[in-house]
DNA sequence: TTCACCCGTTCTGTATACATTGATCAACAA
DNA sequence: TTGTTGATCAATGTATACAGAACGGGTGAA
């Protein structure tokens, strides 16, 4: 077994899963790329069994899809499908914002503010990688602020799934700064603690986000 | 291989998955019940491989959870967790109702009405199994009426996940009849094609459903 | 040239065997 | 009596083998 994959003491299947996720996120495996069990097994120096399990798990997460023909492929969406996914994500984000606004505590408020400060800092320095990370933290913090782990998990799942497509809209430094400003507005609306204001704020934010993502794809 | 499972020409793993989902939804396998691969393999007259795959898929859907010790168990939630799951489901159902109301076609309307008629028939005859099935069809049809497969899948996932808990509230014939009446109101609200009416209708429906489910658990 | 069919190849689905881990219980010592 | 340790066993993790189905290429006929 390759040491790189075995580094941690995870079951083989999990290790392979993690490795594949990393490859897909990094764009090494592009959308539409076909994955066959035998080749992967050879690559990881393992048998087909754990590879199969890893593929299965990734398919369950929507990261891979079962091809029309045979075999698994890295998920690839038409513009229509992409807009449908964003519509669903949109709904969930709005619900999260509304619930979070209702249940805001001092602690979660501080955490959101801290995440946003990091976003602004990264945007101003034009540090794309740092911004992407801080952006994740910002949104995840809002999810957790709902106080509902299941909602948070749901929203996080969609975020993972749409990650590659959203990332494309942050090409230039001005994109980062625009996003940070949008965060500011969204944050104000959530901090209003008014459900309608919060959900309308997230609706505006997500609509903007969707149109930018579609433009970049 | 048991004929019941092989009835359709599905891969074994899928057939086993479907059978287990049915058992869990119907409450044959209760929350907390431990499932081991060998026993299931014997039950289905299959080898461990497809059983394993089925369990994996169910775990990914949150229907099963990996036990503290070893092995998979039917997901079991505290009342607090249950209410959180229902809250999330609540949000998604409301969004579905709103979107479905906006995009209602003659065909989907007819399909929803047909499903509801079957619910009423089953409720009046006190046929619990038939009612549970018709109830599923009714809700799934609403999901499909959104025209968004991803939303539909999301909602369906939650339905599968909460199946065992919702099933408990249909103990008596009068529970079935009450549920069928609630469907009627919900259907009217969705058919109004007014977003606010539809989402408020679903909100009332789900709030009622949640309180009944919590009472039964 | 083109279409259809057949055959070889390759991949997935399933079964089975082997390895390893984790749990249970008994025995012994404090 | 209780805690700890070791052995045993059962269940999971992994490997390998086999069967069946799908893709591709090539050959033949129209």
Attribute tags:
homodimer; 217 residues; mainly alpha; Arc Repressor Mutant, subunit A; Four Helix Bundle (Hemerythrin (Met), subunit A); 2 domains; three-stranded antiparallel β-sheet; 10 helices; 3 strands; disordered N terminus; DNA-binding
What report would you give on this structure?
The structure is a homodimer of 217-residue chains. Chain A is mostly helical. Chain A folds into two domains: 3-74, Arc Repressor Mutant, subunit A (Orthogonal Bundle), CATH 1.10.10; 79-216, Four Helix Bundle (Hemerythrin (Met), subunit A) (Up-down Bundle). In chain A, 74% of the residues lie in helices and 4% in strands. Chain A has ten helices and three strands. The first copy, chain A, has helices at 3-6, 12-25, 37-44, 48-60, 79-102, 106-125, 128-144, 149-167, 173-191, 195-216, and strands spanning 34-35, 64-66, 72-74. A three-stranded antiparallel beta sheet of chain A has the order 1-3-2. In chain A, strand 2 (64-66) and strand 3 form a beta hairpin. In chain A, helix 2 packs across helix 4 (48-60), helix 3 packs across helix 4 (48-60) and helix 6 runs antiparallel to helix 9 (173-191). Residues 1-7 of chain A have low confidence and may be disordered. Chain A binds a DNA duplex (30 and 30 nucleotides) through helix 4.
